[in-house]
């Protein structure tokens, strides 16, 4: 870990011009517990005037709920949150019937696209994300809709996410069940896929840095955007998992240490 955390990462090195893109789970908080120092690190960046957005593959919460959760951590994120549900809405057409396997965040996104949320029956699309109430009946309804011709859309592929209790199943686990039962290949919306890339690029531009805890989503997301990848070890990826691919340009124990490492005043 030592060489990756310290070598070739000078405190005077700064990110490419543009902005900062933060994952939430594992970077800003773990479950319901804020990562120490994260709020202060974000505030330093915001006060420096660089664009900052918060991008999460967690689709269950509405954008307002995510903003409120960030505010409770001491972070002003009004108008700066993009979720995988937001990205999934880019794949929905006005007037469509959409069967949602997930929480209010997906319902909100589907309705914002001018589509109708349905719980059963014929559908034009099935959107699958995090759903703590997922059960066999949910799987059956989603499977039948897809086999009946509905497009299968996944908010994200993440198999797990970090909590205070350890890893819990992520939305990608539920999507895998639906895809297997329906024998269908889903179209993906969240990190690192094109719909959410388009959402972020429209806010930040052509250069920036992605801070995350998962190389398989955040690292590939940075590559898709053409941004730098900064890995923090406060979430899913730990020091024992290094080295990882894609290799991060920066690596630190947590967000506060990362901002210190990159020489921001």
> Rg to the nearest angstrom?
18 Å
* Count of individual domains: 2
- The CATH class of the largest domain is identified as Alpha Beta
* Helix amount: 25-40%
Order of helices and strands: HEEEHEHEHEHEEHEEEHEHEHEEH
Instruction: Determine the CATH superfamily of the largest domain.
Output: HAD superfamily/HAD-like
CATH architecture of the largest domain: 3-Layer(aba) Sandwich
Q: On the 0-100 scale, what is the average pLDDT?
A: 91
- Cα(first) to Cα(last) distance is 25 Å
Would you identify the regions where 5 or more consecutive residues have pLDDT less than 50? 6-13
The fraction of residues assigned to DSSP E strands is 15-25%
CATH level 3 topology of the largest domain:
Rossmann fold
Number of helices: 10
- Structural class based on helices, strands and sheet pairing: alpha/beta
Characterize the largest beta sheet: strand count, sense, and whether it forms a barrel. 6 strands, parallel
User: Main sheet: which strands, in order across?
Assistant: 5-4-1-13-14-15
